[in-house]
TrEMBL record:
Domain of life: Bacteria
One cellular-component annotation, GO: cytoplasm
Transmembrane segments: none
Alphabetical list of Pfam families matching this protein: Epimerase
Coiled coil: none
Protein name, entry field: 3-beta hydroxysteroid dehydrogenase
């Protein structure tokens, strides 16, 4: 299959590109810079120059492909306004992809976060949140899954997708710890975050591309829920910093989400698609953090 991918040079995307190429697919990857184009080509894929905001380029990439995987997101969490801009940009790009693929029955694999449900693990049947700072992503993905004539599916990623000690919410905690001189966590730290290794998540993206029925959602969850203070403890030990509770506002616009208990299950995904994570879990992988 010839696959068009956005976000193909990021932590997750580079793993997905390698996974696709390793299983006989060819890849056309959106590249917004010369450096990204070089990385794409060195990985064995073809680069298509443009950014997520270049909707004509996005449509052209989808037109040339047998299937699409969307991963690109600006990941600017510096303010609520920045997050809103990122969500709006992604919504426009996903809408363009859906319009291009509609009626073709080609696969479109998109991405969201796992939902949180008070008092229990979230599952694949739980709806995505459509309010709050990232509610726009939930509304957009829900609309994509409802398209007719597109084999659309969504991989729901946990709070931390990690590789070599970096990535996701845990990576943000590490960045904040380096800046603040303390490895902090909001609340009492007993809230749980799910996690997955990027190389395991990449396998699930491929399986969804190849197998997932239209309108389905899948959970890329290995660790169902690591306590945030346990994550902060490893970060603090690796960086040689004290570990302590900090106010939510210390964590920027994501502070309230950081403080939320949000464990998640992937039992249905594993059983149905035959997905089996094999790489190190989050706490083990955080041992790779360099002081």
């Amino acid at each position: 299959m010839r696959v068009f991918i956005t976000g193909g040079t990021g932590l997750i995307g580079s793993a997905v590109v390698a996974e696709l190429l390793g299983h006989g697919h060819t890849v056309l990857a959106l590249a917004r810079s010369d450096a990204s184009a070089k990385a794409v080509e060195e990985a064995g894929a073809e680069a298509l120059r443009g950014s997520l905001a270049d909707l004509d380029v996005i449509r052209a990439g989808a037109k040339r492909a047998d299937g699409v995987i969307h991963l690109a997101f600006s990941n600017d969490f510096s303010s609520a306004e920045a997050v809103a801009r990122s969500v709006a940009e992604e919504t426009a790009a996903l809408t363009a992809l859906g319009e291009e693929l509609q009626g073709s029955d080609r696969p479109l694999v998109t991405v969201s976060g796992t939902p949180w449900v008070p008092g229990r693990l979230s599952t694949e049947t739980d709806p995505l949140p459509t309010d709050g700072i990232v509610g726009g992503r939930g509304r957009t993905v829900t609309a994509i899954l409802g398209l007719t004539g597109v084999r659309s599916s969504a991989i729901r990623l946990p709070r931390t997708v990690h590789n070599n000690g970096d990535g996701g919410f845990a990576g943000l905690l590490t960045q904040i710890a380096r800046q603040a001189g303390v490895s902090g966590y909001p609340g009492d730290g007993t809230q749980r975050w799910p996690a997955v290794h990027a190389l395991d998540a990449a396998v699930l993206f491929r399986l969804a591309l190849e197998q997932a029925p239209a309108g389905t959602a899948w959970h890329a969850v290995d660790d169902e829920g690591d306590r945030v203070r346990d994550i902060a403890a490893v970060i603090g030990r690796r960086l040689g910093l004290p570990v302590q509770e900090l106010p939510e506002e210390n964590f920027g616009p994501l502070g309230a989400i950081f403080a939320t208990d949000q464990p998640s299950s992937s039992a249905y995904t594993r059983e149905t698609l035959g997905w089996k994570p094999v790489h190190p879990n989050l706490l083990a992988d955080l041992e790779n953090i360099q002081p």
